[in-house]
Amino acid sequence: MVYSFDNKNDISKIKIQDFAFYGFEYKQKKSEVEIHCKNEMIKKEITMRFSNVICIYMQSCRVWAGGNSIQCMYVADDTYITKLQSKQNQNQELYSESRLAHGDRFIPVGMEMNSGDELVICCKKLEVI
Q1: In this predicted model, what pLDDT tens digit does every residue of 3-38 receive, in sequence order?
Q2: What is the DSSP-derived secondary structure letter of residue 69?
Q3: Is the pTM of this model over 0.90?
Q4: In whole angstroms, what is the distance from residue 100 CA to residue 83 CA?
Q5: Strand, coil or helix: what is 79?
Q6: Exposed, middle or buried, 61 (CB in 10 Å: 0-12/13-18/19+)?
């Protein structure tokens, strides 16, 4: 399934609970992130491909001890994108070729892990393979 700004609210319906991270790859030239996940109980693997990535935020402090299982996915608030826009507005000449400057619409996709950690990726498109 492919998710964009138009159907972003469906992201919270992705059945990802109990899938564990086993790979994270950032492809800088493509501005793409791939996250590989596996659910050992049902013997299923999925890949989440985030396209046109403008921001990655990760809190990794093991708030509730260890663990790398995903508890849920959601659309985060626009704080991450707003911070980037504010920074760019302060120096418009430097950021004139930014994708944000062109008015593109991005989705802040959040994930919470069973450790209490959080990952947010701001992208234009998410594909679950």
Answers
A1: 999 999 999 999 998 899 888 999 999 999 999 999
A2: B
A3: no
A4: 11
A5: helix
A6: exposed
